[in-house]
C-alpha cells in the first residue's frame, strides 16, 4: 500500500473511530458512566474482540496493518499532551493537613495490589502461558503488580467535581491520595521498564538520561517557562507553540533513553507554571486532546486487545483472579488504611471505591508494557479487562453507598422525630 493510500485509509479510520467513540461515550453517560468508560469500550468494540470477530473483512478494510503505525504515532501525540495535563493537575493538589491519612492510604493502595499482583503471577507461572519468556519472571510479575497499583487519577478528579465533592473532606482526601498513589506507581513503572532490558549499560543510560532530563527540566525549562508566562502581552498561541515544542522535546528524549514518551509529558506538566495564563495554555490544549487524540489511542488499544485469546479455562481463571486481586488489593487496602488513619467509615469506604478505578491510566501503562515487550497480547488483554471492570463499577458503587447513607439518615430523622 503506497503512502497516499495509507494516508487516505488513516483518515477514514479516524472518522470511524471518532464517531464510534462519541456515540458509545454518549450511551455510557446515559447509563451514569463517565464518557471515558464508553470510549474504552468503543476501542475494544472496533478491535478483534467484536468487529474483527463478527466481520473480519470489514475490520481489515477499516484498519489495515499499514494504518496502525500511523495510528500509533498520532494517538501518542495525544497521550503526551494528556499526561502533560495530568502532571499539571497532579502538581496542583494540596496535601496540607492531609499528609498522614493521604500518605497512609496511598502507600497501602500501592503496596497491597503490587504485592498481590506479583504473588499471583509467581503462583500461576507454569500453569498459564501468558508471559514473555524473554523477559525475566520477576520483571513480568512486577509489571503486573504495578499496573494493578495504578489509580485513574484524572477520572477520580472528574467524579469528585461532578458529584460536587470538591473542597470536602472526602474529595480532598481522595484527590491527595490518588495523586500520591499514581506518582509512586509511575516511578515504579519506569523502574520496571529499565529492568526489562536486562542490559546494565542500557539501565545506566536510562538512569543517567533521566537524571539529566530532570535537572534540565527543573533548572532550565521551569524558570524559562515561568518567565515566558509572566511576560505581559504575549499571545496565547505563541505560548501554546512553545509548550508544544517543550513537550515534543521531552517526549523525544524520554523515548530515546528508554523511559517512554508519556513520562516526558507528565514531567513537563508537573513543572509547568501555575496561574491564569498557564491555565489558559492548558485549557487551549485540552479539548483537541480529549475529543480527538485520546479516542485514537482507545482504538489503537482496542486493536491490540483480543478477548478471543482468553477463551481457555486457565486464562479465564487468571482474568478473574486479576480482577479479584485488583479490587481486594486497592479497595480493601485503602478502606482499611483510611480507618486506621482515623477516617470515618463512610469516607474511608468511598475513598477506597474512587481509588479502585484504573481507567485510562492503566491502559497507558499497559501500552507501555506492550511496546517494550514486557506484556504479551494475552497478558495485555487480561489486564484490559481489569481496567474496564474496575472503572465501570466505580459510579454504580458510589451511587449504592450514597443511597444506603440516605436511607440510614432518613431512618435517623424519623426516629428523632418520633422521640421528639
Automatic annotation (TrEMBL):
GO CC, any one term: membrane
Gene3D superfamilies: 1.20.1530.20
GO molecular function annotations of the record: antiporter activity
InterPro entries attached to this UniProt entry: Cation/H_exchanger_TM, CPA2_transporter, Na+/solute_symporter_sf
Domain Cation/H+ exchanger transmembrane per the UniProt entry, residue ranges: 17-398
Transmembrane segments: 6-25, 37-58, 70-91, 103-125, 137-161, 173-197, 203-221, 233-251, 257-274, 281-300, 306-327, 378-401
UniProt-annotated location(s): Membrane
Membrane topology type: Multi-pass membrane protein
Descriptive protein name: Cation:proton antiporter
Lineage: Bacteria, Bacillati, Actinomycetota, Actinomycetes, Pseudonocardiales
